[in-house]
């Protein structure tokens, strides 16, 4: 997109003068930003002070830059809007890169506002405070778009372009960086008007071809990913699936695209398969002749060469990337499904119900003890049964979280979050804080192990200070448990570097001024959860466990 000159009046005679920092905050406010997660520093002073003129913008100060982007990511995904992080350059940006990577993998709308060193020092490697050469190159692999603002006069147009990038095409983080002079110097305060955006047009010929593929398929299945949530496509997905009686599998990112109570929902299968899986979902998947991959990279489905793929994605680069036998449609999933359903309805009547067949499959999947691992299953069922249907679960890279991807029933869109393929250990708790800021009336639970939780346990202080009432569940086995088990399996019962010496988590909760609750069994866990949901404070819920079997 080129900047829209019509958005900015060019008659300057009566225009007031503002600092670049004031223009920045005014532009954010005009774009609808009401929360910023950040850590102030010397390069950002002139961006911070204008916040005093916008009391409806909440600045949430974290205890580590890493948490600013995790929280912005959680906020974006839970709200369906844009999360904003503000950090200092150099080490600040590098600290924040973990959360940016998470947001990139999860296709999350995050705006990173980063300071810079003095304008005349950029790119010269002179060794000034927080210098890193070159920040744009450092951040480029994990952002969709990035820009450096060198003058106050360019602040408004650059912010406008950043939001255009965030609202069009595939959602992914963008970054702008600003040296202190561009924030402190004055410029004309021209009117700011965000341009309107709309989904790209859908190829009509592609729709007709896709409709023909679906009508010809004897046993199609839907593989639904996180793009369903990003496009707000859950309602049309259900109408489409019900009309054609196509069962739905979801990726971990797609959980909640359809309620797991619906007979067409088969849930989330285990990860990659060789085609020899004992899991009923995988067995059924390999009987399907057409896989509709909707809003997903199609990376973990692992279909056979003979299975046809029909892939819909807003990012044309993903079409056919992970499966050669694929017909691709570039477009917003909601728009494509709407057009597809209309095309099919003109030539085909609703298909006969598959409810009895699919309910038998669902029963074998969810109720057969052979497909359950203990004690993980008992804990996950206790979790599901003792939080509201609309509660939001944010999971880490830990044994219980892995199990939850397959066995935690999800009933609403945007109610289950992972770190996607980035796989960031320690992401769950700070991400959950951002989720709770976006959805303050909902119960929000983070699911971590002891090792991962301690990556960002300092954000308990943030939770307490700002009243962000997340229930942080920590399964404590005194080790990096999954790594320990894998090592022992691979190396004749031996492991190294996996044992942990943890703090007393109940004393830690007390020190940070949050509620501490402890459990030692699934039954005690259920009781603790019920108690935690009634407390109007942040909660640290420690579950004491021993070494667990593989969740896979």
User: What do we call the CATH homologous superfamily of the largest domain?
Assistant: Thiamin diphosphate (ThDP)-binding fold, Pyr/PP domains
* Number of E-type strands: 20
Low-pLDDT runs: 1-13
User: Based on the structure given, which CATH architecture of the largest domain is correct?
Assistant: 3-Layer(aba) Sandwich
Domain tally: 3
Number of helices: 21
- Spatial sequence of strands, sheet with the most strands: 3-2-4-5-7-6
What is the CATH top level name of the largest domain? Alpha Beta
- What composes the largest sheet? 6 strands, parallel
Termini separation: 45 Å
> Average pLDDT, to the nearest integer?
93
Oligomer: single chain
Beta-strand percentage range: 15-25%
CATH topological fold name of the largest domain: Rossmann fold
Radius of gyration computed on alpha carbons: 25 Å
The helicity comes to 25-40%
Instruction: Report the structural category.
Output: alpha/beta
Globally, the shape reads globular
């Amino acid at each position: 997109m080129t900047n829209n000159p019509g958005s900015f009046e060019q008659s300057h005679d009566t225009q007031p003068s503002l600092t670049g920092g004031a223009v920045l905050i005014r532009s954010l406010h005009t774009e609808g930003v009401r929360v910023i997660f950040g850590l102030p520093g010397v390069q950002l002073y002139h961006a911070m002070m204008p916040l005093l003129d916008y009391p409806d913008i909440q600045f949430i100060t974290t205890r580590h830059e890493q948490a600013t982007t995790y929280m912005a990511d959680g906020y974006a995904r839970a709200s369906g809007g844009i999360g904003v992080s503000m950090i200092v350059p150099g080490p600040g940006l590098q600290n924040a890169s973990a959360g940016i990577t998470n947001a990139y993998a999860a296709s999350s709308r995050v705006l990173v506002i980063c300071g810079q060193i003095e304008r005349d020092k950029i790119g010269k490697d002179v060794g000034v405070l927080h210098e890193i050469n070159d920040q744009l190159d450092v951040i480029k692999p994990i952002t969709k778009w990035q820009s450096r603002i060198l003058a106050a006069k360019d602040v408004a147009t650059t912010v406008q372009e950043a939001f255009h990038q965030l609202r069009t095409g595939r959602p992914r983080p963008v970054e702008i960086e600003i040296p202190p002079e561009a924030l402190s110097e004055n410029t004309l305060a021209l009117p700011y008007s965000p341009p309107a955006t709309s989904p790209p047009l859908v190829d009509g010929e592609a729709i007709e071809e896709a409709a023909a593929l679906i009508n010809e398929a004897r046993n199609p299945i839907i593989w639904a990913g996180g793009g369903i949530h990003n496009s707000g496509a859950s309602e049309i997905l259900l109408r489409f699936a019900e009309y054609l009686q196509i069962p739905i599998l979801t990726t971990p990112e797609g959980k909640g695209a359809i309620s797991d109570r619906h007979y067409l929902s088969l849930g989330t299968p285990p990860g990659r398969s060789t085609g020899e899986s004992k899991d009923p979902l995988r067995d059924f998947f390999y009987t399907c002749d057409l896989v509709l991959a909707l809003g997903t990279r199609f990376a973990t489905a692992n279909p056979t060469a003979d299975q046809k793929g029909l892939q819909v994605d807003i990012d044309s680069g993903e079409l056919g990337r992970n499966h050669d036998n694929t017909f691709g449609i570039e477009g917003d999933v909601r728009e494509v499904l709407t057009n597809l359903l209309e095309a099919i309805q003109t030539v085909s009547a609703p298909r006969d119900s598959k409810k009895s067949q699919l309910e038998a499959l669902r029963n074998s999947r969810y109720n057969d003890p052979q497909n359950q691992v203990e004690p993980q299953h008992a804990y996950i069922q206790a979790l599901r049964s003792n939080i509201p249907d609309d509660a939001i679960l944010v999971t880490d890279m830990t044994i219980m979280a892995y199990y939850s991807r397959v066995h935690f029933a999800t009933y609403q869109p945007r109610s289950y979050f992972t770190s996607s393929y980035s796989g960031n250990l320690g992401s769950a708790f700070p991400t959950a804080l951002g989720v709770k800021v976006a959805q303050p009336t909902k119960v929000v639970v983070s699911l971590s192990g002891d090792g991962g939780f301690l990556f960002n346990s300092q954000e308990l202080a943030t939770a307490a200070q700002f009243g962000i009432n997340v229930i942080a569940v920590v399964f404590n086995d005194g080790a990096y448990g999954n790594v320990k088990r894998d090592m022992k399996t691979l190396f004749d019962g031996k492991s190294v570097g996996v044992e942990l010496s943890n703090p007393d988590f109940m004393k830690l909760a007390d020190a940070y001024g949050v509620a501490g609750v402890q459990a030692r069994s699934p039954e005690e866990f259920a009781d603790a959860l019920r108690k935690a949901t009634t407390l109007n404070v942040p909660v640290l819920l420690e579950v004491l466990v021993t070494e667990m079997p593989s969740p896979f």
